[in-house]
Amino acid sequence: MQSERKIFLSHAWANKPLADQFRDTLVLGGVPESRFFYSSDRATGIPSGQDVGTYLRESLRGAGLVIELISHDFLGRPMCLMELGAAWVMGVSTYPIVIPPLSREEAVSKVGNVQMGLLGDDSQVTDIFNELYDRLNNLLGLRLSLAAWNRAVTGFRAQLPALSQQATGAHRGLPSSPPRMTKALGRSATSGEKLTFDNISIIEGRRGKQLVAEVTNVDDVEHSASIKATFYDSSNTIVGTRSSVINQVGPGATKTLTIDGVPEHARSKLQIDTLV
Q1: Whole-angstrom Cα distance, residue 134 to residue 90?
Q2: How far is residue 119's CA from residue 160's CA, in Å, rounded to a whole number?
């Protein structure tokens, strides 16, 4: 059934920060998290104990749309190319998106002459999300609010230069710049005191360690946000980052944020990547 079909987000592990932000943008734009197969998030990826190849094939077969984030790293990963080819063989609707510094011409030379989006300038980014808005409504039966969608896309465009720099560094084997941070965990405020974090804890959940926190909207309008946690060891070396989304926190309201897959760490910080 149309209402059960998912978005399969295919990407190289080296491009995870960009893929995280892309997924979070779609969620902030109104797509339920349950409508994704996204292997880099434990909540929407391959369950423990499952055969990887079999689970990927079944997930592709049941997808309503496969979005491929095609980069130099993507083209160098056999599993990524397998996902791309399998989607075509199965006749699943696909939307390849080229990630600079890879050019569209280079991508075509590797995967064939198919229509691809380019995550380049503002006009090209707008074209990508306009097409996605139409496809998600038509192919998956979603009824997305155009106003919420446009706010989420605006936030993505603001983050794209830093994410593109990370993608370029990953391709060249360079260390990426550290993300901008908010105050230390405890009670922290971000984005001009519009959202605050309280009662931040690490707990044992069904999927391993989880970071949980209360997010309070201290503004007078409703907000949604993509939120990232960065984890450090005792020598202040980053040992991992994780992200999640908090949706539709009303004025004065508090909701619980959960971030899965927390690594072993000595301390951590939160940041708001996108606020709408």
Answers
A1: 22
A2: 9
Which letter does DSSP use for residue 215 in this model? E
**In this structure, are residues 182 and 244 in contact, taking their beta carbons and an 8 Å threshold?**
no
* Residue carrying the six token digits 């508090």: 254
**What one-character DSSP code corresponds to residue 213?**
E
pLDDT tens-digit profile of 189-237? Answer: 444 568 888 888 888 876 678 888 888 888 888 888 888 889 998 888 8
In the chain, alpha helices (H): 16-28, 52-61, 72-75, 78-90, 104-111, 122-139, 146-172
Amino acid at 18: L
Q: Which residue has the tokens 């979603």?
A: 142
Q: b/e for 128-155, b at 16 or more Cβ within 10 A?
A: bbeebbebbeebbebebeeebbbbbbeb
Residue with tokens 């984030």: 69
Q: Which burial class, exposed, middle or buried, applies to 81 when counting CB atoms under 10 A from its CB (0-12, 13-18, 19+)?
A: middle
Tell me, what's the pLDDT at 46?
A: 52
Could you report the per-residue pLDDT of 78-103, keeping only the tens digit for each? 888 888 888 888 888 999 999 999 99
Q: What is the value of pTM for the model shown?
A: 0.64
What is the rounded distance in angstroms from the CA atom of residue 183 to the CA atom of residue 94? 41
Amino acid (one-letter) located at 162:
A
Integer Cα distance of 85 and 83 in angstroms: 6
What value does the mean pLDDT take over residues 239-256?
84
